[in-house]
User: What shape does this take?
Amino acid sequence: MMKRSVITLFAMLAAVSCSKTESYSTFSTRNRVFFCYEIFQSPFNQVTTPARFLSVRKSEGKLHMVDSDGRKYDMELSAIQNSSFLMGLAGLIIGTPTFNNDDMSVWAYDLGCPECNNPSIRLKFNLEGTASCSECEKSWSLNSSGFPVSGKARPLFRYPVTLNNGVLTVSN
Assistant: This one.
């Protein structure tokens, strides 16, 4: 009887302690995302090149994009695209990382800072594949699964990407 009580007590403590820990998942479901485009169109054709990234955000019926070199692009959206594209917290960073990516697949991160969690605060990224937030002054590596470059911070929100017949879809 005593043995069963001790086992029950340990099981209850384990259940309570596990429920309070934060779990990690490769892909985020915190913010809704649905975005698709043909990778043969410029500037989207850059995202299949290793270490090249493109930020994409939606505003006033247009897509606003910035590539790793800082070049800016705008594209008008159709009414259907404008209503159906969901861009996560603040937009997307899409590209092909050079590390931890044996199959050279395209990855997508949120353009919003996971520490500030504010849609008006967008990350800046550079040719070296580092994204940084001017508000909290934290940095993340786009080439290493979106983990912080130094210090303690949450990893970037990452979203699933599929590529089918030249159409890249980011969706959770």
